[in-house]
Structures are given as C-alpha cells and as structure tokens.
Amino acid sequence: MSHCIGLLSIASKLNLLVLLLSAVCFCSCLSDRIPEFALTKTEESDLKEENGKESVAEDDLDPEDLEVFYPTYQWQTVRPGQAVPAGLHVRLNLQTGEREARLPDNKNEKSDMKDQKKRKRLDEMHINSNSYTSQELKEALAKMKGKEKTENTMEQKANLEDVRQRFRPIEELKKEFEELNMKIETDFEVMVKLINKFNSSTSTLDEKVAALYDLEYYVHQVDNAKDFLSLGGLQLVINGLNSTEPMLKEHAAFVLGAALSSNPKVQVEAIEGGALQKLLVILATEQPLAVKKKALFALSSMLRHFPYAQLQFLKLGGLQVLRNLFKEKGMETLYIRVVTLLYDLIVEKMLLEDSENKEDQMEEKVQQYKQVNLVPAVVEQGWCVIISNLLALPEHDTREKVLKTVRILMASCRDGYQGDYALSTTLSMLRTEYEELAAEEQREGDKDGYFKELLSSINTIIQELRAGYL
Length: 470
Ligand SMILES: *[C@@H]1O[C@H](CO)[C@@H](O)[C@H](O)[C@H]1NC(C)=O
Ligand SMILES: *[C@@H]1O[C@H](CO)[C@@H](O)[C@H](O)[C@H]1NC(C)=O
What we know:
27% of the residues are buried. This protein has a 3-stranded antiparallel β-sheet, with helices on one face. It is globular, with a radius of gyration of 28 Å. Strand 4 (89-92) and strand 5 form a beta hairpin. By secondary structure, the chain is an all-alpha fold. The longest helix has 25 residues, at 157-181. Helix 12 runs parallel beside helix 15. Helices cover 70% and strands 3% of the residues. The chain has 3 domains: 114-182, no CATH class; 186-370, Leucine-rich Repeat Variant (Alpha Horseshoe), CATH 1.25.10; 382-470, no CATH class. The N and C termini lie far apart (80 Å). It contains 24 helices and 5 strands. It has helices at 2-10, 13-31, 35-39, 42-60, 122-130, 134-153, 157-181, 187-199, 205-218, 222-230, 233-240, 246-260, 264-272, 275-284, 289-303, 307-315, 318-325, 332-354, 360-370, 374-380, 383-389, 396-418, 421-443, 450-467, and strands spanning 67-68, 76-77, 82-83, 89-92, 99-102. Bound molecules: 2-acetamido-2-deoxy-beta-D-glucopyranose (2 copies). The site of one 2-acetamido-2-deoxy-beta-D-glucopyranose has 4 residues, from loops. One 2-acetamido-2-deoxy-beta-D-glucopyranose binds at residues 239, 242-243, 274.
C-alpha cells in the first residue's frame, strides 16, 4: 500500500491530471460511444495503450519496487503496486472498489496467455484506470492541496493564480471521476446486460440493434468472445440470423463475424450452432446488400483457418451460393470480397502444405485440409473466367487482388485462360497502362513502386500463358 501512495505523492501534478483526464475520457467514451469509435481500426488504440502502459511503467513505477501477485483460481485482491502477471482475469469488485485477479478458469486457456498482448482496448484500460482507487486519489489530491498552501506561504503569489487555475479543473474532474468510477463495469457485466437487452421481448428493435452494435465492440477480444459463448449470447446471435428484420440479421452477422475472428473455440461452437447454414441462406436469398455484406464477413471469419468448416461449406454448396452472387444485380461490391476470400483459403492450404514445421498437430490439420478440395471445385464451377473477368474493373487494388488470384489459379485454369481472347486483350491493355504508370512512378524516384509490381504480375501471367503453348 505504501508503495502506491508514495508513488502517487511523487507523481507530478501533470501526471495526475493526465490520469484523471484519461479516466474521464475513457468513461465518457464508454457511455456515449459514437459509431466511428467501434468501427475504427483497433491497432491504433492498442498502440497507444501499449505506449501508455510502458510510460507508466517507466516513469512512475520502479520495477524493483513492484511486488508480485501470486494468482490462484480464486479471486484475490490485488494490492496497489502489485504487478499482475499477463493472462489473468482482472475485475473491479464493485462493492469494495478493489481490483481482483485470478487465473483463467480453464487450464486449457493457458495457451491464451500468448494472446494477452493482442488483448484489446477495454480490458487494458480497465486495469489502468482501476489501479488507483478513489481513496488513493483523494489522498494524493489532499497532498497536492497541501503543497498549494505551502507555496502560498512561500510568497509565490504570482504563481498562485496559475496554480489555482490548474487546480480548479482537477477538483471538478475529481468529482466527475468519482461519479464515473462507480459506473466502471467489467466487460463481462456489460455483456450480460447487452445480451439481456437483445434477448428481452420488451426491447424495441432499435434497442436490440443498439445492443448488438455494442456487443460487436466487446466480442473482438478473445476472452470476451468466450464469455459471450458461455453466456449463451452466441446462440442468440446465430438465431438472430433468421430474424425477419433485416437490421437484426445484419447486426447479428456483424457480431458473429467479430466473435469468430481468429477464435477457434467460437468457430467450433458456431458451426455446431448452425451458423454456417444460416449464413448461406442469407447469401442465397434476396436480401439487402448491407445484410449480405455482413453475412459474407461472418462467413469469411468462419472459414478462415478452419478446414472443417471449409469442408462443410463445400458440401453445402457454398461455392455455388457465392457464384450466384455474381449473377445478382447490385452485388458488385461483394465481388472482390468473394475473390479475396477464395484467394485466402487457397493460400492458407498451400502454405500449410509447404510448411516445414510438420508436427503432430500440424499433421492433423494437413489431413483435414487434404479433404478440402477447393481448387478443383473452383475450376469445375467456372470460377476461372468469373475471376479473370474482374480484371476489367477500374480500381488498382481490385486488379491487384484479381491478378494475385489469377496467378495462383494459373496451374489449374491455364487451359481456359489460353483460349480466352478477352483475357489476352485485357492483359495487353493493362500492360500498356501499367508500363506508363510504372515509368511515371520511376521518374518520381520510386524504384520499387506499386505499379511496377502490378506490371510485373501482368508480365508473369502473360509469360505463363505463352509458356503453356510450348
Ligand atoms: C433469452 O430469453 C429466454 C426467454 O425469456 C430465456 O429462456 C433464455 O434463457 C434467454 N437466453 C439468454 C442467453 O439469456
Ligand atoms: C431461427 O431458426 C431457429 C431454428 O433453426 C429457431 O429456433 C429460431 O427461433 C429462429 N429465429 C427466428 C427469429 O425466427
């Protein structure tokens, strides 16, 4: 305890102000989160957090002063100044205002400690903002006020006004902080509320959509997604996919996609909960574009790095469902997402097959992937030409993805491509266009530019098509 108080007393006024400001900002962000906040890429905030954490560690905490917290499977109070090892579950006890931590429930979850670094946004912020209790803050503020008086007697009257001005907002912030501090809840508690809101028959459509919207923000985190699962939220969201309300379908798919991302446990539960069929139904039937977009997003999260789901996808005719999107009007913005998904799935399998590191576990995965005959199905269903036709689209980054996909499919699609007059015309036109752009790029001093790379892709494809004739 003495550590932390000592710590706070030496903390400069500025640091405390920053702490208070960030706490207030954090809380107000939580309470009236604007749409952009949830959709912003997380990398940036992660980075900031990490920097913030580092600087706390470097500036304020002498590592040698830190006591180590020895975790058990029971919740234990974390004393101020104690270092909490990574990978623990941390919560704020709302009755005592104290921070508590314990080992994750399931011993299997230990492997998740690696994920700790990737843990996002709120959890880290909870830890940071809860590491000072309001009592400590009050004591620190009392000391600072004491200083203010000393300064007064030291006849630094010129400074006084300045100091006062700086302290007034702190006093106000303190009050605000204490009010807000009471409202800080763990992610788990927030999710329980949101799930209940979504599940309640008395909630309006808007309230349900808002609950899903907020849930999407939480389930990105691997541990939160697991809690979401154990709370029964995942199945509710899967059931939401066949709601009659397009808005609910859309947001249910959004939450599902977020929870599935790089989360094998959720992937398994979701496929068992019937999510794959429901997503395919959405993609196969007439739905607003926004709904299909999110369903495709969830489908992609479901299939990536999950060969079992890929196999079911092929068995259920998922590839035909995606191909039919190309016949539907108004779905153009989905084309490149579909191609990107196919490209990623093909590459994923290739990388694993080429991988040197064939340990037992890998071997099992290789066996699973062996059953996923995606490329033959792609060729059989006429995707070669569907994909190469997309080279006619005007955007460079679309063409880049299509070129990559054409190259990867070359061995299997060559026969069709060689007889494709439209393709060779398109390739010549693109070559001319990118020769010019690459030259311009080089004149501007960019030797290994983007357009040069595209040009080289095009040239490789043209060569490979010619080589086939030999
Ligand atoms: C949703 O509501 C139903 C009916 O009120 C209830 O039986 C079910 O347990 C709830 N599900 C969850 C996950 O809260
Ligand atoms: C969606 O389908 C499941 C069964 O597949 C059903 O239990 C659920 O009630 C349906 N939900 C809606 C909103 O229709």
